[in-house]
Amino acid sequence: MSVRPGTVGMASGRVLVTYATRLGSTREAAQAVASGLRAAGLGAEVKPAKEVHGLAGYEAVVVGSGLYVGRWHKEVRGFLSRHRQELAVLRWASGLARSLAAAPSARVPVTKV
Ligand SMILES: Cc1cc2nc3c(=O)[nH]c(=O)nc-3n(C[C@H](O)[C@H](O)[C@H](O)COP(=O)(O)O)c2cc1C
């Protein structure tokens, strides 16, 4: 599977929306993302990162996590680490803007989780 940022809108197959949460808001965000994808005519499946054991059958993957003391949830970091060879990832995180700005690129690059 090969996914390039900016091309998800062109996908016609299934999209995996995976996430990890402590308090539940990232799960709700994942469900909202999947609803938006379905409204756009895509197939979308929502699954906790710890329950994803393979990416076969997915054309694109969206990954989300809460931020906890500046870090993504360990289950998302594990997911990214397990699938790093297969993924170019569109990332989002919920939390305060200052930490959010610093976290995705500075602290959790996809190639070094
Ligand atoms: C223990 C703890 C640490 C947190 N650390 C951060 C942080 O470093 N930066 C941030 O922006 N938000 C932080 N937050 C806020 C969470 O990222 C935010 O509430 C998020 O929506 C939680 O996602 P969840 O409901 O999916 O667990 C923290 C929350 C908790 C409970």
In short:
The protein has helices spanning 25-39, 74-82, 97-107; strands spanning 14-20, 43-48, 58-68, 71-72, 90-94.
Structure overview:
- With 113 residues, the chain is α/β, with parallel strands linked by helices.
- The chain has a single domain, classed as Rossmann fold, CATH 3.40.50.360.
- The chain contains three helices and five strands; from the N terminus they run βαβββαβα.
- Strands 1, 2, 3, 4 and 5 form a five-stranded mixed β-sheet that branches.
- Helix 1 (25-39) links the parallel strand 1 and strand 2 (43-48).
- It is globular and about 35 Å long.
- It binds flavin mononucleotide.
- Flavin mononucleotide (FMN) binds next to helix 1, strand 3 and helix 3.
Provide key terms for this protein.
disordered C terminus; 5 strands; Rossmann fold; 5-stranded mixed beta sheet; 113 residues; alpha/beta
